[in-house]
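**Reference record**
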Amino acid sequence: MEKTEFSSIRRKLGKTQKQLAALLGMSLKTIHSYEQGWRSIPAHIERQLFFLLIKQRGKNKELIPCWEQKSCPNREACPAWEFQSGDLCWFLCGTLCDCTNDVSYRDKISICRECSIFKRLTE
């Protein structure tokens, strides 16, 4: 995640830097550092930001689970199905779609960013 995307998501969440720092459990200086590009944004922070953004936007949308959208033949073996979190497939590690099983979260999110499900959730 680049600094501009980080700042953009913060604004979409309607949070000041101070409010986002409190929400993420970090210092205001850390948020400044991310937005200025002085520090790289760790994968776990990127993950939390997308989670918050999607949950905020999902309040007004009827979400169709990923296994239905993709007609998944392995749904019962997938963590998204097991935990009935078809809108959080991008968040969960070990999902079975699009070769994201057994990859790091950083690799997984780069695959998920191209997925129509993730794109719909973050639009």
Summary: The mean pLDDT is 86. The helical segments are 3-13, 17-24, 28-36, 43-58, 66-69, 79-82, 105-112, 116-122. The chain has two domains: 3-58, 66-122.
